[in-house]
Amino acid sequence: MGRPPPCSRDENGLKKGPWTPEEDRILVDYIQRHGHGSWRALPKLAGLNRCGKSCRLRWTNYLRPDIKRGRFSEEEEHTIINLHASLGNKWSAIATHLPGRTDNEIKNFWNTHLRKKLFQMGIDPVTHRPRTDLNILPNLPQLLAAANFTNLMMTNIPLDAAHLAKLQSLHNIIQVLGTTPTMEALNFLAGPTFRENHQFSNLSLGFAPQELTQLQSNLLNLEAPQQHQPEVTEYHNQPMEDSNNHQFSSLSPANIPPLLTQSQLPALVPASPERRPQTENKNINPINISNPSSTSTTFEGWGDLMDDEESDSYWRDIIRPGIISDMALLLKELWD
DNA sequence: AAAGTACACAACCGCCAGGTG
DNA sequence: ACACCTGGCGGTTGTGTACTT
């Protein structure tokens, strides 16, 4: 039997919950005069009806004089994202790079802001790589309609980084379809079995035949070798919260940021000396696109996944617009 | 104006590693 | 070798506030 944790060991009236200004004053007074010494002994010596652990947390996370309060700056934000990419949830390690910020504060900021932000940008907040999962699919019709590849390639449409990340994710999916014997997969996805099993509606993506032709040629252009293959961080490290702050104000074919192939995808965050090794690139793509025989398994797997998912409604929400089937139909036409 | 909901953040919990007797 | 203490860490919960219906 393990020993009960210090704070619950003696429940004889020790106060929990929010600290009062008076308690704060007592704690700060005591530590300024005597130092904290043994945290366990401190509350009794200082005259606080708290456990030592509670006092330590209050001091380190809130009362310490060197704590910087207020909003995180853009620079701090980028630092956290970069460090998280290399260190993971090592909040205390991350905090050492941000003077005046506590691990708790950084952790909260990550959980409430940054994780959500990355997610919405089509970046997996755990792996820091473009999401190739299906969660981006609900936005694809809008994305396709709004971006309308034809226009995207032929005109100057300002795109922000979030759109670019989504486009890259879409491109990743397209590539999975395009680099394998696609017809089997597409037939499966577009076929009546898949549709009926998942109650898909027919939803036109609204491409005219000539647009499809143009789209096909534009997609093929995307496959062409790029002169410049920047680190993806060149986009992600830019300020993103301001949708008017377009990183690529003029997207001519010459300056369209390259959409990387699955096998070429670099780490989202450039490797610093202490960062994760290149070998982790094997994790980039959960789908083994180098193995043609994996195709049908992959797409049948999607169906399985949807059936197996704990939250049925979760997948239904994602699939409701019939996006996969419509994408498959679209891509069938493109690759026919 | 009241009720419900979402969000941000402070605080707590449980576990672990290192130190000590 | 063992039991215990202590501080630290990451995950989770609770609470206050802002916003929406």
TrEMBL record:
UniProt feature, compositional bias: Low complexity:
283-297
Q: Where in the cell is it found?
A: Nucleus
| SMART domains found in the cross-reference section | SANT
**Region feature (Disordered):** 1-20, 271-297
Q: Which domain of life is it from?
A: Eukaryota
Instruction: Name the InterPro entries for this protein.
Output: Homeodomain-like_sf, Myb_dom, Myb_TF_plants, SANT/Myb
List the protein's name.
Answer: Transcription factor MYB39-like
Q: Which Pfam families match?
A: Myb_DNA-binding (PF00249)
Q: Which organism is it from?
A: Gossypium arboreum (Tree cotton)
What does the record give as the organism's lineage?
Eukaryota, Viridiplantae, Streptophyta, Embryophyta, Tracheophyta
Q: Which residue numbers delimit the Myb-like domain?
A: 11-63, 64-114
Q: Which UniProt keywords apply?
A: DNA-binding, Nucleus, Repeat
- Which PROSITE patterns does this UniProt record tie to the protein? HTH_MYB (PS51294), MYB_LIKE (PS50090)
Question: Which parts of the sequence belong to the HTH myb-type domain?
Answer: 11-63, 64-118
Q: Record keywords: Metal-binding included? A: no
Please tell me whether the keyword Cell cycle is annotated for this protein. no
